[in-house]
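Summary of Year 1 activities. Much of the first year was spent building the evaluation harness for sequence design. The harness presents a backbone, in tokenized form, and records the residue chosen at every position. We chose the following record to illustrate the format because it has been used consistently in internal testing since the harness was completed.
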């Protein structure tokens, strides 16, 4: 019985120590060293955070304004769809990628609703194939040109939405603030 009480008392001491250590660790972020770390953070971090928040607000305003009916948006989206189709066509027809694409197509059919081990192995193999396709694609000028066309088409959609949002008063104020932030961030970039 005495052994039980000693063990119980020892357990309480260990528990009390663990709790007090936990409390000490939670208080550490208020220590002077962490305050200096926050002060050492690059000033652009706050600007980038503000920019991200404003971008989200702007996207919300644009979504509520429903600009999808605008012909300029439709034209930009059509060009983006064409760029996507062109990229996929160039990629699927390129001779250096044929073997990998055929192998990936065979693997896609191996999904099993009951065998998770097989699915994991298939997923790993697909990841390896996709990595190899990306590596080879990065060396092929035709695919790079098609990928650049995709990026330009996406940027055109973005720019068109911004131009149309400039006609919405709330969005216009956000766009002006984003422009100011971009100017400040550009001024903070090191000159090469």
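For this record, the design step produced the sequence shown next.
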């Amino acid at each position: 019985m005495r052994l039980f009480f000693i063990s119980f008392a020892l357990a309480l001491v260990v528990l009390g120590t663990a709790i007090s250590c936990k409390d000490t660790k939670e208080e550490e972020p208020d220590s002077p060293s962490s305050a200096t770390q926050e002060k050492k953070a690059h000033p652009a971090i706050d600007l980038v955070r503000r920019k991200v928040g404003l971008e989200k607000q702007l996207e919300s305003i644009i979504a509520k304004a429903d600009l999808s009916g605008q012909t300029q948006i439709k034209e930009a989206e059509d060009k983006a769809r064409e760029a996507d189709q062109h990229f996929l066509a160039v990629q699927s027809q390129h001779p250096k990628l044929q073997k990998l694409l055929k192998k990936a197509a065979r693997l896609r059919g191996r999904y099993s609703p009951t065998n998770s081990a097989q699915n994991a192995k298939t997923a790993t193999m697909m990841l390896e194939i996709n990595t190899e396709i990306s590596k080879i694609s990065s060396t092929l000028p035709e695919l790079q040109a098609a990928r650049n066309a995709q990026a330009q088409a996406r940027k055109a959609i973005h720019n068109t939405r911004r131009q149309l949002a400039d006609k919405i008063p709330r969005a216009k104020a956000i766009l002006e603030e984003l422009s100011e932030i971009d100017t400040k961030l550009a001024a903070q970039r090191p000159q090469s």
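Confidence is low (pLDDT under 50) at residues 1-5, 8-13, 22-28. Quantitative recovery figures across the full test set are reported in Table 2.
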